[in-house]
């Protein structure tokens, strides 16, 4: 017999009755009934009930075991009586009558209680992550992640992609987020950088002729945490294709990711390819965001012209100054209390709006704070424009276009949440396409790249030379699911002449571009194929599939929001010897109340 187990704790069924088995696992729960001791033994695969009889020499030992101690149990499988069957457990029809118990690893009192639904404070969960990961929910999430990654790999290989690893130690990039730097011992005063993404390497692989590349790539960015973004590091499905159009990239992602969501959706509805495509400008006008949650059945409508000559002077004057008016029709909420509307007005003000106008179509006419300023004809035109009926409410936001869209989008999301309007059992996908190549800096007035400086402009060199830069669109795209941006991608700018012109418009001299991106420009001068790619985030994909709202719940060993690993104590100070080897001296900021040195 195997020294530790013949079966797993989740394996036993009535067919095993009468067999002598050996199980190993953690003491999950104990119930002392006086004449009998019941121990729920847990391993990665499930839970089995162990019965310890009082005449056994190990009875007192088992009574004294603390929860989460590891033991090996040898015993006989018996069927439970009908009245003691536990229908909630796959093994609930049988139990093991212990014949021997061998302690393997005694446990002290755990700082986290693992047998209940209570999770405990986040700092404790992260400090004792090895305990937190024992909980069934966390085990499910991490196993789901493993299965999703495996499915993605198989999908990519099915499409003819090769998995190629790119360097972890590389050079710092002047674009993008803040780098994590690694000092070089052999090159005093010089530093490696951990890659924010394998972007440049995967493009160089296309120049090298590999045609289709992918990897499950670790990426490192020194940026703040969010619920859907880990600080420090994350993983993405990084892919690139040569001689590929935007449609080619979409087809691969829709098949691979769409298939993964179909396989792991557990009965939820999943959009079938092709996914809906929404131009960036349209997405901003309809949803107020380039990450729309399409489960919420609300869209904004432009009603600027309806107010341009209206009797509502506040909107009329704002429109004359360049503002727009966004209407957000919401069906069936006319009967909501005054406090509901007051809270929504306060929410709009917290977003930077001066207020929130609204109209209520009730059984006895149109009501609301601005109703008295509008004629019957204007009200009828608004009703027609917004497709409203009795019982509906329309909210109005008046501001400059960017702000009106942002505020309206936040209100849309808030109403979708508060009114429980979003589908609970669906994954709704879309592509956001046609991003502007440039935008104007609100502070300096300068023209800057708006999204990705290495994207191919639509229309190529001709568009850059002849169009207003703010009218130039790029072959850039984002994949979005349920309001979460899963990935950004682009068809790349593979021609040096177009690249130099694109950067010139953004204020970069050709000398600066040559200095900051010499490896890419140099490679493109030796024959670069048209190519494009994308990089869906593994963590976000698994977060959605697991039904979690925080990405830390699907990462085995995450950092906290301050980019600290509480379990390992990182980041940490290093010794003077290590600093000397790296030719470094510390110049730390002076702590508050610390005397000058």
Please mark out the parts with pLDDT under 50 across 5 or more consecutive residues, or reply none: none
What is the subunit arrangement here?
single chain
Structural class: alpha+beta
Average pLDDT rating: 95
Compute the separation of the termini in Å: 68 Å
Approximate strand percentage: 15-25%
Strand order of the largest sheet: 6-9-10-24-23-22-19-12
How is the biggest beta sheet arranged? 8 strands, mixed
Task: Outline the fold blueprint.
Blueprint: E1 20-32, E2 37-43, E3 46-52, H1 59-64, E4 70-79, E5 94-105, H2 122-127, H3 129-132, H4 136-158, E6 162-163, E7 181-183, E8 191-193, H5 199-207, E9 212-221, E10 232-242, H6 246-264, E11 269-270, E12 276-279, H7 280-287, E13 301-302, H8 304-308, H9 313-320, E14 324-330, H10 338-350, E15 357-362, E16 365-367, H11 376-386, E17 393-399, H12 401-418, E18 426-427, E19 429-433, E20 438-440, E21 447-449, H13 460-466, E22 476-481, E23 484-491, H14 496-505, H15 510-516, H16 518-524, E24 531-534, H17 538-546, H18 576-581
Parallel strand pairs: 3-5, 6-9, 11-18, 12-19
Antiparallel strand pairs: 1-2, 1-4, 2-3, 4-5, 7-8, 9-10, 10-24, 13-14, 14-17, 15-16, 15-17, 19-22, 20-21, 22-23, 23-24
Descriptive notes:
Strand 15 and strand 16 form a beta hairpin. The radius of gyration is 30 Å and the shape is globular. An eight-stranded mixed sheet has the order 6-9-10-24-23-22-19-12, sandwiched between helices. Strands 1-2-3-5-4 form a five-stranded mixed β-barrel. Strands 13-14-17-15-16 form a five-stranded antiparallel sheet. The chain has 597 residues and is of the alpha+beta class. Helix 4 (136-158) runs antiparallel to helix 6 and helix 4 packs across helix 17. Helices cover 29% and strands 23% of the residues. The protein has 18 helices and 24 strands.
């Amino acid at each position: 017999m195997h020294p530790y187990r013949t079966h797993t704790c989740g394996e036993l069924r009535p067919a095993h009755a009468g067999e002598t088995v050996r199980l190993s696992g953690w003491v999950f729960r104990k119930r002392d009934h006086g004449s009998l001791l019941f121990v729920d033994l847990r391993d990665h695969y499930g839970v089995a009930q162990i019965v310890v009889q009082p005449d056994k020499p190990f009875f007192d030992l088992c009574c004294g075991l603390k929860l989460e101690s590891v033991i090996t149990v040898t015993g006989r499988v018996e069927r439970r009586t009908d009245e003691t069957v536990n229908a909630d457990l796959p093994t609930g029809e049988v139990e093991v009558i212990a014949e021997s118990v061998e302690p393997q690893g005694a446990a002290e009192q755990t700082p986290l209680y693992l047998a209940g639904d209570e999770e405990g404070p986040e700092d404790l969960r992260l400090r004792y992550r090895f305990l937190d990961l024992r909980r069934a929910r966390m085990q499910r999430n991490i196993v789901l992640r493993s299965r999703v990654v495996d499915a993605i790999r198989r999908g990519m290989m099915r499409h003819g992609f090769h998995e190629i690893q790119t360097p972890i130690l590389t050079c710092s990039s002047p674009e993008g987020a803040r780098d994590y730097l690694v000092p070089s011992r052999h090159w005093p005063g010089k530093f490696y950088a951990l890659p924010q993404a394998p972007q440049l390497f995967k493009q160089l692989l296309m120049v090298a002729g590999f045609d289709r590349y992918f990897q499950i790539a670790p990426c490192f960015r020194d940026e703040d945490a969010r619920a859907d973004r880990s600080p420090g590091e994350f993983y993405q499905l990084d892919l690139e294709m040569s001689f590929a159009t935007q449609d080619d990239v979409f087809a691969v992602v829709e098949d691979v990711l769409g298939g993964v969501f179909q396989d792991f959706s557990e009965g939820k509805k999943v959009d079938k390819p092709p996914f809906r495509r929404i131009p960036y400008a349209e997405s901003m006008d309809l949803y107020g965001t380039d990450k729309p949650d399409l489960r919420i059945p609300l869209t904004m409508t432009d009603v600027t012209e309806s107010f341009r000559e209206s009797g509502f002077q506040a909107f009329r004057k704002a429109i004359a100054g360049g503002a727009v008016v966004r209407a957000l029709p919401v069906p069936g909420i006319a009967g909501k209390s005054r406090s509901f509307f007051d809270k929504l007005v306060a929410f709009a003000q917290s977003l930077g709006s001066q207020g929130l106008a609204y109209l209520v179509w009730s059984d006895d006419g149109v009501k609301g704070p601005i109703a008295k300023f509008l004629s019957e004809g204007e009200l009828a035109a608004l009703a027609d424009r917004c497709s409203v009926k009795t019982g509906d409410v329309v909210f109005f936001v008046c501001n400059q276009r960017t702000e009106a869209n942002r505020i309206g989008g936040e209100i849309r999301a808030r109403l979708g949440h508060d009114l429980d309007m979003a589908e609970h059992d669906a994954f709704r996908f879309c592509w956001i396409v046609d991003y502007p190549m440039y935008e104007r800096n609100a502070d300096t007035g300068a023209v800057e790249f708006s999204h990705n400086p290495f994207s191919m402009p639509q229309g190529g060199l001709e568009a850059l030379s002849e169009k207003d830069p703010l009218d130039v669109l790029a072959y850039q795209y984002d994949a979005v699911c349920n309001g979460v941006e899963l990935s950004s991608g682009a068809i790349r700018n593979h021609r040096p002449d177009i690249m130099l012109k694109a950067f010139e418009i953004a204020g970069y001299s050709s000398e600066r571009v040559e200095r900051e991106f010499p490896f890419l420009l140099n490679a493109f001068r030796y024959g670069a194929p048209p190519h494009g790619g994308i990089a869906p985030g593994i963590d976000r994909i698994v977060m959605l599939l697991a039904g979690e709202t925080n990405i830390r719940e699907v990462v085995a060993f995450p950092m906290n929001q301050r980019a600290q690993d509480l379990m390992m104590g990182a980041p940490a100070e290093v010794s003077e010897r290590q600093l000397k080897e790296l030719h470094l001296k510390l110049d730390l900021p002076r702590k508050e109340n610390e005397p000058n040195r």
